[in-house]
User: Fold these one by one.
Assistant:
Number 1:
Amino acid sequence: MAALVDAARGAMAHAHAPYSGFAVGAAVLLTDGQIVTGANFENASYGLSLCAETVVLATVNSLGRLADVEAIAVAGGTQSAIVAPCGRCRQVMHEAQEIAGRHLPVYCAAASGDAMTEYSVAALLPRAFGPADLGVTRKKKS
Ligand code: THU
């Protein structure tokens, strides 16, 4: 999914990451082909920083399009290694997958280069806590 990874890389330009210097971009592909992007948004308090994946999925939610999510890409960092989503982002991805009602591939890449690994959300977060654990059965938005 080269185009989606390219979009994630493009979003790195909008990262607000003056504290870590670790710019990350994320991109979400919707069922109609639209791509929505986001970047990490750090905070002087450090702990309140938002990751690119959470930012982009919150944006997709704000657009009313969570049910249409088809794939997620994340790229960035300062090394040649791919970016691995943090724990909170994995949980947020799981929620998006539950709402979308389809398995979401997650493409993880570095800021540049060919290294890219595709993961399933389930591989990133096995036995996830989700809506069913709260007795919520109708997750998909109409
Ligand atoms: N970060 C992301 O945006 N996504 C990831 O998958 C890993 C980490 C951000 C958070 C923080 O702004 C910076 O990268 C360093 O941790």
Note: The beta strands are 24-30, 35-39, 69-76, 105-110, 116-120.
Number 2:
Amino acid sequence: MNDHTAHLLERLGISQRNPGGFHGEWLGSGSRQQVISPLDGEVLAAVTNVDRAEFEQVLARCHGAFASWKLVPAPKRGEVVKELGDELRRNKEALAELVTLEMGKTLREGLGEVQEMIDICDFAVGLSRQLYGRTMPSERRMHRLQEQWQPLGVVGVITAFNFPVAVWAWNTAIALVCGDTVLWKPSSRTPITALACTRLAERVLRKFGYDPAICSLTIGKGSEIGDLINTDPRVALVSYTGSVPGGRHVGRLVQERFGRHILELGGNGAVIVSQKGDLKTALDAVYFGAIGTSGQRCTSTRRVIIHESIFDTFVAQLQALYARTPIGDPRDAAILMGPLVDAGAVATMLEAIETIKAQGGRILMGGERLPNPGGCYVTPCLAEVAAGLPMTREETFAPVLYLTPYRTIEEAIAIQNDVPQGLSSAIISDDLLETELFLSAAGSDCGIANVNTGTSGAEIGGAFGGEKETGGGRESGSDAWKVYMRRQTSAINFSGGVELAQGITLEL
Ligand code: UN1
């Protein structure tokens, strides 16, 4: 390990061996794993998972911390989140670089990820003074009807490797101002960025004299620690980001005990490129959407549905862009595409390409493993396919892009919607009739539908999530905070007697 990396890890509080649990103190005596960088196969650090008994200790403390945290006035909770945002500002470059080292996204995207964390903190600070309830006219004389929002409890946050820190922040910043405490289980593939974030949160909470268990951590396997979170009634809300099978499992377990869940599962982003749109806009939007994060965003562009009249031109220009893609060490500012997260992801991509060919798709370029150390670098792949090719209905978490021609806008929308997932979609068109159709009830069926910009890179101000197999959850901005709170409706009678609603009378 070079001095720079060693210094970076030290600055963020990462040792050679790290306990993977936190509830005010650090603990972890379960199985040990080494964290290997996909950049070059270097061992970054070792982490010991929490075992079951330790999980119980952490959850008990996190749950206990709720009792006092929920009583702190929301704007005061907002001050904590403001300080968390400032800590992130101070550590933006370092944390971004750690994200790059641990999961392989380019440094510029790592910086963007930390910026999302800062943005959601700012959003949550404002929200801490705007957790508005409503009052409604009562049907009864001298009565008032109101609703208010109360803290909910422990939020279990289970995150994926591809946004190892931002998804925690979306959930945590909102949960904290809502008066909830957070128990985080990060992806086993990205534990050290989780350690670094937890250390930042610990510092902030201690500075204000609050219980650091408000931001607890349990690193461990999904099948063990994840399931303890899913099944424990002390966890009021489980916010899960991951695969569709994973989400199905989480959803069942949480529903079984009538807990709440937010599921952010698979995506299968599509861009409709109309002949009435600007070609350069289309190329830029599609290119970043497809190769950004090496195709490992839920919002990645996986399908391009192109008007037949411009199909050949568009594809030729996209191929030219693809051919020039700088692939390599994602810390290098000139690089646009880093490695996939691990060797397993490479194998999955190569297998997918064989299946595409077997199903009749035509590989135009890319889809090869590059001979770098660590072995996780690939070339991005373009595949020309007919609408309905079975593989286009599946999410391959890699830079594989399907290109399909269409004739009419209605047909394009039908192709776009004809997949099990419903997260993100976009249209590139300057024709108002087309773009409005795309945004209408007859248009995209996704949680995100963009016009003249790509499928990925959603801003934190909007609610983030999608339909169908994407799971239906919403997190981040807009009014997504409401899921993190208990809605309470009250009828207040100041008439001096009792009057029943619905006109029911009771003669006593
Ligand atoms: C994800 O891939 O899980 O919209 C989240 C985006 C990012 C978040 C992606 N803001 O691409």
Note: The first strand starts at residue 17 and ends at 19.
